[in-house]
Amino acid sequence: MYREKRVTRRAEACQELSKQMRSTNRGYRMAKRGESVAQTRQRIVDAAVTLHGTLGPAATTIAAIAAEAGVTRLTVYRHFPDLDSMFAACSARWMSQQQPPRPDHWTLIHDPVERLAVALADVYRFYRDAQAMLALVVRDAAQIPTAQRNDNAAMNAQMCGVVMAGFRVRTGPRRRRIEAAVGHVMAFGTWESLCVEQGLDNDDAVDLAVTMVTAVVRERRR
């Protein structure tokens, strides 16, 4: 009798151990599968970033992304069912690899002209670092999803708003002229004209841009 009970306990213990091992293996397989799915998604996003920075958004097709990532087009669609979600993930991934401007730091500077100069130095540094991608994005702006264009416009509006807050001009024609000048010098196209087409370095471009804006600021004070 004692021997039979001992055999039964051993059998039950073996069954329990086998059950635990199956559960552990199942959890391991699920974890590996989740890791594989995440890695595939990241590979697709990285492929889109690469193509956006070399071919441009307009020429970046799902087929091209799939080929660059080494997956099928169906796999791309499983992860990104529409263009907006693809662009959002691509933009977030690319931006995470950059050092974007920091408007929150500009607010610590009270003198409006000095704030403008610091802001431009920060923005122009970003433009030079990200020139290749930004040039293609601006070129293909019409093909970029509306949500992404709105995000870009909101970022530009925020930067210009922080600079304009330093001038403390609330309303009227003078404010509109200063806003136009600030918006112009903060634009990527202006940096591209000054530094790429005209060959200025960032410091000279900042000095010239500040001179242009301060001329408009002082114009109405005479």
List keywords for this structure.
11 helices; mainly alpha; single chain; 222 residues
Written overview of the protein:
The chain is 80% helix and 0% strand. The radius of gyration is 28 Å and the shape is elongated. It is built from eleven helices and no strands. 20% of the residues are buried. It has helices at residues 2-54, 62-69, 73-79, 83-96, 103-106, 112-129, 131-139, 146-167, 173-186, 188-197, 202-219. α1 (2-54) packs across α2 and α1 (2-54) crosses α4 (83-96). By secondary structure, the protein is an all-alpha fold.
Summarize the structure.
The chain is mainly alpha-helical. The chain is built from 11 helices and no strands.
Low-confidence stretches: 28-32
How many helical elements? 11
Shape: elongated
Average pLDDT, all residues: 87
State the end-to-end CA separation: 112 Å
List the helices and strands and how they pair.
Blueprint: H1 2-54, H2 62-69, H3 73-79, H4 83-96, H5 103-106, H6 112-129, H7 131-139, H8 146-167, H9 173-186, H10 188-197, H11 202-219
Helix pairs in contact: 1-2, 1-4, 2-3, 6-8, 6-11, 8-9, 9-11
